[in-house]
Design a protein that fits this description.
alpha/beta, Rossmann fold, 2 domains, 6-stranded parallel sheet, two-stranded antiparallel sheet, 10 helices
Length: 298
């Protein structure tokens, strides 16, 4: 049987993941807009992927069931990339809850019923879900475990509690992470795995809409508050800057066979970038280094 990867949501993030996972497999690309699915499929097909397309509305059980049926008709469903959703600038609260919260739970339920042994899935949540203040334990449990068709009826999701699109988006993305955690147990019984990731702002067409739309101020504040660095610090693996003085290289040593701990690190005094690793040490240098190491051993 052919291995099948299902991508729901033809945006930039979903396409990037599909490129990494779909080589040598059948890729089923589904989106609510046929023109988006077709455009993405052409790009991927031109890059050598075996792609077919479909239209799906994740807020409709009948529509998601149809995609599941098409996927299993193509082969063994070995991968699910769920990247469909709407952002605060694109939709009112009720639509966000229907697509991002209910739709994700529906996709997890239905694909969890057919995922092949050894398969895996990933749900694209958002850093926004972690910016939401802590919820009571019972509300977390409700978001994680309430049957899919009962989710929209939860009191915590009613209009008097969710008054704007930003709140709807944050609660939906929090629910995504909680739902994945609960579904992982059911998926595991089939020998499959499911994970969620919560990216920050990745510059895509959707992100540009948010950064220039009515909620742009909130997104820029989220960027400013993020603890993640914005640029490469220039430090490389295997190097550490000492509190004072030049950068020094670290050489990690192993535990000795008799159980004694050897030197965990050797600080070479020459800066890493100017040290010539190919230069042979003279006998005198080797003897001096051996004596220094001997002093370090317990």
């Amino acid at each position: 049987m052919t291995d099948v990867i299902v991508l729901i949501g033809a945006g930039s993030i979903g396409q990037a993941i599909a490129r990494r996972l779909s080589a040598g497999k059948k890729l089923l690309l589904a989106d609510i807009r046929p023109e988006n699915a077709g455009a993405a499929a052409k790009v991927l097909a031109d890059a050598g992927f075996d792609v077919s397309t479909a239209t799906v509305d994740v807020s409709s059980r009948q529509s998601v069931e149809a995609i599941v049926e098409k996927a299993i008709s193509l082969g063994d469903v070995m991968g699910l990339i769920h990247a469909a959703g709407v952002s605060p600038s694109q939709a009112p609260p009720e639509v966000i809850l229907k697509v991002d919260l209910y739709g994700t739970a529906l996709v997890l339920e239905l694909f969890g019923n057919v995922m092949a042994h050894g398969g895996s899935g990933v749900v694209i949540a958002s850093m926004a879900g972690h910016r939401l203040p802590g919820l009571p334990v019972e509300e977390n449990a409700a978001l994680a475990g309430t049957p899919v068709e009962e989710l929209p009826k939860l009191s915590m999701l009613q209009p008097d509690r969710i008054t704007n699109s930003g709140d709807a988006y944050m609660i939906s993305k929090r629910a995504n992470a909680l739902r994945v955690g609960a579904e992982a147990l059911r998926w595991a019984k089939r020998g499959a795995r499911i994970n969620s990731i919560s990216p920050g702002i990745i510059i895509t067409p959707l992100a540009r809409d948010e950064l220039t739309g009515p909620l742009a101020e909130g997104y820029r504040k989220m960027l400013a508050d993020s603890p993640a660095p914005r640029r490469n610090s220039g430090r490389s693996r295997g190097s550490r800057r000492a509190p004072h003085g030049p950068r020094r290289c670290l050489h990690h040593r192993q535990r000795l066979p008799d159980g004694r701990r050897s030197d965990r690190e050797l600080l070479v005094r020459q800066p890493c970038q100017t040290r010539n690793r190919s230069r042979q040490r003279s006998p005198g240098e080797r003897g001096s280094l051996d004596k220094r190491n001997e002093k370090r051993r317990p």
